[in-house]
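To fix ideas, we quote verbatim one protein's residues and fold tokens.
>
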Amino acid sequence: MIKNYSHCVSIEERDGVSFIRLYRAIEGRKDFYTEIKLVQSTDGVDWDEFERLSSLLGKSLLIDSPMARLRFGIEAEADKNEKGELG
């Protein structure tokens, strides 16, 4: 059976730079998965950057989700059992 887990998304700042950070939440743990640097807009809302980040965030979450990969038929080594089969 494919192990499923949730994701936690937060916005954090380091050295004056903001990041969207993604964590895997599994079995009571919160493990770092990846981060996306946020570009600071100086001219108001930058909808192109917002759309780019939204798309990147969504793709990152879906590609890391075992159940989403299964649903879309995307195979990953982590989804295979000891016999090399999915499930």
Notes: The two ends are 4 Å apart (CA to CA). The chain has one domain: 6-79. The chain has a mean pLDDT of 84.
